[in-house]
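Database export, one record per block. Field names are fixed; values are copied verbatim from the stored entry.
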Amino acid sequence: MQLEILSRLPETLGVHPPLLFVHGAWHGAWCWDEHFLPYFAQHGYAAHAVSLRGHGASAGRELLRWASIANYVEDVAYTAAQLAQQSGRPPIVIGHSMGGLVVQKYLEQHSASAAVLLASLPTHGALPFFMRFGLKHPWAFAKTVVTLTPYHMVGSLELTRENFFSPALSLAEVTRYYACIQAESLRAVWDVAVGALPFPQRIRVPLLVLGAANDTIFTVGEVALTAQAYHAEATIFPDMAHDMMLEPKWQTVADRMLRWLAVHGW
């Protein structure tokens, strides 16, 4: 499987473990390259983002409908192995939203230097989100169910803004990001709801959990439960929505991650 990997490298390699960023549903590696990859490279980290199969410029678009969370974990494992071979140590893995579930499932069977979860899918799955969405947007939800096409949940500029962004983000920026929003796997949607939930007791690596106060997908309470499940630190950012890496105050999130990495010697 040919996977798109976007990389930003620091002037001096080898000081820190590499970072591997994993995007969420309907996204691709592009969402990390807007701010996070260059910012972490400026701070000395080799920063990489993978587009999971069928996303971005990765192969597999024609089979995306049936891609599973297990398939996405395979993509992360393949990319992480490449980075570990190049650097001599396993990467730090960072997952956003559905990518947070992918990271959790990856960590059940693979080693990592550490992990960060941003607005991550909680350990109990996304079923509560789907129920909340269905009550708020019955027509979009009905189209999703009848056509078995998850794209209907994000398939307008208004839904994309509501799901991912705060009102502080300009219309021009939302429009630009909306052009990158794409179809998502039907199988993966089933997996995130009930089919492939994580087992926190199997994960031993240090974890940082970050959430957004104005997230309409996963609530502050769900972020807190995720942190509790991993006995991890949790930080909630005010005035921020789901796509924390693209929000106007994205740098506060990146700086929190940098401080946590420095405290742990990474």
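Remark 1: The first strand starts at residue 5 and ends at 8.
Remark 2: Residues 69-87 form the longest helix (19 residues).
End of record.
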